[in-house]
Amino acid sequence: MLPRLILLLLAPLLSTGFSPAATFLGQQASSRLFGSILPKDFKNGMTITVEGEPNKIVEFSHSKQARGAASTNARFKNLVTGNTLTKTIKASESFDPAQIDRVDAQHTYQEDGTFYFMDAESFEEISCDGKVVEDVRDWMVEGMNLQLVKFGDRVIDFVLPSKMELTVVETEPNFKGNKDSVTKPAVLSCGATITIPGFVEQGEAVLVDMDKKQYISRAEKTSR
Q1: 95-120 burial, b if ≥16 CB within 10 A, otherwise e?
Q2: Of 37, 33, 61, 56, nearest in space to 46 by CA
């Protein structure tokens, strides 16, 4: 009796082509696309749609003339072509979030200019050309966990960990009496070069802020 009653209640909706599943999926799609990004919301590294393609905000600055409207000067990197674009944007202009996927992965190895990664969920091997890695090549360490940014089936960018522990492999020796304000360049185990305090010695492990690519502190020593 109950199933027949449910069918009678749904009959008017079904006759008009109503589909609960389609409605739910439609709500999911619309919520995924809802909301525009204004220049005041910009952040370095944010990925938005510019002229129909995913672009990463490289840098930006807001300005306002005495009697003029506010504007934003921004430089974007097209994550499909690799080209950069500089635009002056009105405060009222808006952009859609880029329709990209982020995949948790581990960098396994590189060979002949190609970088290889393992999908952390499916264990599938994913590869990409070294040109895509260019901006973060010096920070790529085999075995590191990161996120791959994909546009369709193509890897277009990377999200590195917020912090990395790396070893100082080359730097000037620490001289007795060096103050905390003394700094020096240091080559890290990943190949990148940063500025560190003068008291940090070669062979020590340090923490690096990956957003700013800056020294944070010495890494804590773990007891064995």
Answers
A1: bebbeeeebebebeebeeeebbbbee
A2: 56
Identify whether the C-beta of residue 93 lies closer than 8 Å to the C-beta of residue 77.
Answer: no
Tens-digit pLDDT profile for residues 190-205:
999 999 999 999 999 9
- Whole-prediction pTM value? 0.66
Residue 13: predicted pLDDT:
43
Which helix (H) or strand (E) segment is 20 a member of? helix 20-33
CATH number of 39-90: 2.30.30.30
Domain boundaries in the chain?
A: 39-90, 101-159, 163-218
Pairing mode of beta strands 84-90, 70-78: antiparallel
- Determine contact, residues 193/186, Cβ cutoff 8 Å: yes
Question: Domain 163-218 classified CATH 1.10.10.10?
Answer: no
